[in-house]
Amino acid sequence: MKIETKRLIINKFNMNDTAAWALIECDPKVRKFVNNKVLTYGEAKSYVLENIESYKSNGYGRYAVRYKSNGKLIGMCGFLNDELGIDFGYRYSRDTWGRGIGTEAAQAISDYGLTELALSSIIATVLPENIASEKILIKLGFIFDEETYFMGKLCKKYKIVN
Ligand SMILES: CC(C)(COP(=O)(O)OP(=O)(O)OC[C@H]1O[C@@H](n2cnc3c(N)ncnc32)[C@H](O)[C@@H]1OP(=O)(O)O)[C@@H](O)C(=O)NCCC(=O)NCCS
Prior knowledge:
The two termini are 21 Å apart. The protein is globular, with a radius of gyration of 15 Å. It has helices at residues 18-25, 28-31, 41-58, 101-115, 131-140; strands at residues 2-4, 8-11, 62-67, 73-82, 85-92, 121-126, 143-150, 153-161. It has a single domain (2-119), classed as Aminopeptidase (3-Layer(aba) Sandwich). The strands form 2 sheets. It has a 5-stranded antiparallel sheet with strand order 1-2-3-4-5, sandwiched between helices. A 3-stranded antiparallel sheet has the order 6-8-7, covered by helices on one side. The protein is built from 5 helices and 8 strands. The chain is of the alpha+beta class. 34% of the residues lie in helices and 33% in strands. The structure holds coenzyme A.
């Protein structure tokens, strides 16, 4: 799996991504709307490994998002099996925010999920204060489904159906 957009290359994580991923996940601002807990190096390594295993067992996972210009890992975007359904998620290092990167990757990966993977439906949960993330979902055509609780917090669940 390899997807190219104007500025990005999106492909599978590999274990060599661990150090760069740990650097992204140790930033409290990046994790604020996830579960508000930064990851240790060991947890970041497990995350990379879990995704590599998910590619094999599920045929998808969260994917590595890299700058096309220099190959640098800047974040992730992709799918995760969740109790609510196939969850769409993304996060990026803070230095990339506000330049359309989140939208660019999300558009490409949501298209990939609906067409190549032929997923029948995809869900996403977002905290109401995470305006940028919610805007991305709406731009992609996700529709508000219901309010739900995630980690004890009220979230908005969005859904897109194939
Ligand atoms: C949420 C996140 C992925 C957004 O990525 P991004 O590259 O900054 O997003 P974009 O530049 O594509 O912007 C998307 C939209 O949000 C708007 N936006 C960006 N930052 C914003 C902010 N801080 N407040 C309000 N709106 C914002 C943009 O103007 C754009 O709106 P538009 O569609 O009207 O033009 C990024 O901030 C991130 O990684 N956050 C930490 C992890 C996270 O919260 N993940 C999502 C969990 S549900």
